[in-house]
Specification:
Blueprint (H helix, E strand, L loop, with lengths): L26 E4 L10 E2 H4 E3 L5 E10 L10 H13 L15 E9 L8 E8 L10 E8 L5 E8 L1 E2 L2 E4 L7 E4 L4 E10 L12 E6 L4 H14 L6 E4 L2 E5 L8 H9 L2 E2 L6 E5 L4 E4 L4 E2 L2 E4 L2 E13 L11 E13 L3 E4 L5 H10 L4 H14 L2 E2 L1 E4 L1
Parallel strand pairs: 1-18, 17-25
Antiparallel strand pairs: 2-16, 3-13, 4-5, 4-7, 5-6, 6-12, 7-8, 8-12, 9-12, 10-11, 13-15, 14-15, 17-18, 19-24, 20-23, 21-22
Length: 386
């Protein structure tokens, strides 16, 4: 956790310039301005208690009411329709069913720990066949199974789809699709039928698992817990695990002890890391990122090819001829000369931002610069490209 808000690289002023340099086209988000201004985070925000974990549920179901947008006579779907009718007292052969109003789906859900029977959870419904959309559909009652094959919840309800499919879709017809209309969500669509027993205290001990394993963070957490609860004997077992003993004062109040330990402040350590998302043009750097002294030269070559279509036709009083389309191509080459610029050693993210902004590069060029700096050994951080 860092003090201050996330800062955009292109809005940071250069030390020698009275105005912000705004030539960088993308954003570099800074995890903090200096490693020395790190503030504490609560134990509950950095860890989870061993044993208190989510579990995944999955099941097969049938969605009806799709108004002709369902599966196109798929065998599995028709058999499911026949089975549903038979359970309701009507026996129909699957070969005699001709319906495109139903779709076979897979239903998935995550059930959090400590939920009791009667609680509700959200479910995600995904088309299994060739249905065009699940919009307007209703999921019929179906069981959700755990990895052990036991039924832990039952799902049913109307599906909310985040996309849509419109238009005729036929020959010569226009069709418009947005997002994925074959995946939907039923909020509170499943009722928990079986509790998953959760045990977070074993032999009087608790184990905290760090979300971001780090030896320094684990050691600091154990030290902070021991200072707040001297009888806990907290020990950092490894980079991801902190083991502690429930003090005698909390022998019969495990939940109260867990709540109090979760409120202890810890100053986690942050790895030097630069993360680049090429799809969105986002670059994120953490506070410990450093840059050794290096000279950078950047330049760009832009080639633009534009083709326009002109119309040539006979004059108003011409006796013959016909109208013709004449293409015209224009080519433009723009080259920006590059030059070496010395970037002094930047021991902090703030100085690194100033140095890169001074080059006036675009987001794509920044990505290339970071990759080259890593290969040259000047970037003292882990580089991750998504």
């Amino acid at each position: 956790m860092f003090s201050g808000s996330m800062t955009a690289l292109h809005s940071l002023p250069h030390p020698s310039s009275p105005r912000p340099i705004r030539r960088a086209l993308g954003w570099i988000l800074l995890g903090g301005l200096s490693a020395s201004v790190l503030l504490g985070a609560r134990v509950k925000d950095l860890t989870q208690v061993e044993g208190s974990r989510d579990n995944q549920l999955v099941g097969y179901g049938l969605v009806v009411g799709l108004a002709g947008d369902g599966d196109s006579n798929a065998v599995a779907t028709l058999q499911s329709v026949a089975n549903t009718l038979e359970r309701n007292g009507l026996k129909v052969d699957a070969d005699e069913i001709k319906s495109k109003n139903a779709a076979a789906v897979m239903v998935t859900a995550d059930i959090p720990p400590f939920l009791k029977p009667g609680s509700r959870i959200d479910v995600t419904v995904s088309s299994l066949g060739d249905a065009k959309t699940l919009q307007g559909g209703v999921l019929l009652q179906m069981p959700l199974l755990g990895a052990d094959g036991q039924v832990y919840a039952v799902a049913q309800g109307a599906i909310a789809v985040g996309g849509y499919l419109g238009g005729s879709g036929g020959a010569g017809g226009a069709q418009v699709q947005r997002n994925h209309p074959t995946v939907g969500i039923i909020t509170n669509g499943a009722i928990v039928e079986r509790e998953i027993v959760t045990q977070f205290v074993r032999d009087g001990r608790m184990v905290f698992l760090l979300h971001n394993p780090d030896f320094t963070s684990a050691a600091r957490m154990a030290e902070a817990i021991n200072l707040a609860f001297p009888g806990s004997q907290a020990t950092a077992r490894d980079a991801a695990t902190v083991d502690l003993l429930v003090p005698e004062a909390y022998a019969s109040r495990h939940v109260a002890f867990l709540a109090d330990v979760g409120s202890v402040d810890v100053r986690p350590d942050a790895l030097a890391r630069v993360v680049i998302n090429e799809r969105t043009g986002t670059i994120v750097a953490t506070a410990p990122v450093g840059l050794s002294q290096v000279a950078i030269s950047h330049g760009s070559l832009t080639i633009t090819v534009a083709e326009t279509l002109g119309v040539s036709q006979p004059g108003a009083f011409a006796s013959g001829g016909q109208t013709a389309i004449v293409p015209t191509t224009q080519t433009e080459v723009t080259e920006v000369s590059g030059g070496f610029q010395l970037v002094e050693e930047a021991p902090s993210v703030e100085q690194l931002a100033f140095a890169l902004n001074a080059l006036g590069v675009s987001t794509r060029e920044m990505m290339a610069i970071f990759q080259t700096l890593k290969r040259a050994g000047s970037l003292q951080a882990e580089l991750i490209i998504n």
